[in-house]
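Quarterly update from the structural biology core.
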Amino acid sequence: MKVGIIGGGQLAQMLAQAGQVTDMSSLAMDFAFVAPEKDACAAAYGKHFVYPYLDPKAKEALENWSDVVTYEFESIPVALVQELEKVKPVHPSSQALTLASDRLNEKTMFNQQGIETAKFATVDSLEDLQKAVAEVGLPAILKTRRDGYDGKGQVVLRDVSELAAAWDSLAPVACILESMVNFNREVSIVASRNVDGEIAYYPLAENYHREGILRLSLSLQNDPKQQEAQDIIRKVMEDVGYVGTMAVELFDLGDKFAANELSPRVHNSGHWSMDGTEASQFKNHLLAIANKPLGNTDIINPTAMVNLIGFIPEKELIDEIPGAVMYDYGKEPKPGRKVGHINIVANGDNYKDFIENIIKVLTIVGQEALIEELSNSSFYK
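Predicted structure, tokenized:
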């Protein structure tokens, strides 16, 4: 099977790596990537078509080469997916991409399905922002409706005196104002759904962010709210006929969840599954789009994932930590850029050593500020 991937970053890279391992050989998958970056880190794992996404040659290349097409992130032109759908199977669909690539569509969809979200209002001008603040209240977050990620395209508002500067910093892009949510913890649910409608759910992950960037994810075994989270992602997947791996980020309010965002793709908070489950989120995405039975998502051993932001630590330091596995994406280190991640796997029920190993990794990568938060989490207890 020839799998065409729109995008050539680390998620495309890890999809291709998952498709080339021994237990996937029966699918005989080959990969090609359409990405405008000549140095795309996925390029070494298949054929690389170096075209802008809206260049007609991009569609032509994928149409002529691929048996099935997928994509690695939601900031791609919906028009490309819509055109490809006319001639090739594309998973996830343009409908899913349209929902997830626009925060207004996303929030509206959640509410229509009875899933709670933060209060929100559309903002297309400074006057709109002033009205939205009166409706939503402060503190709140002004976000671009499209293309924001890892804290980009967002401004926190705490006082009405900040409105004009905040709007000027993002204008003239269409925006949305979201109320701040008082939550107990941030979690995400990742699941995969194949063409026949089979769904495989991953255990919840508890997530920790800094500067809008995910820094740490902890797999949660037998979490009491697992079923509630599964019900939320199942509603979304079945409503849009979703095929592939999806993530929904959730705020735990104590008595219920509020949905924050959905991602129509493999997700950073699911990277722990590469070492913590038999079938990673990447493997199950490929099985789903090939309409094959999905793999086992039960936790083998509790696993933590630490993002590497801006630099790769010395491999020798990580190799000394039991259960730690480092993934280097081969990207040029830059401040604020995700260049790799480290998975730390527990040794059976030995949580004391597991927590100590997570702390060692956090210290090496300069995330000491998370150590106190980790010690106060339900995961630690």
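The chain has 13 helices and 17 strands.
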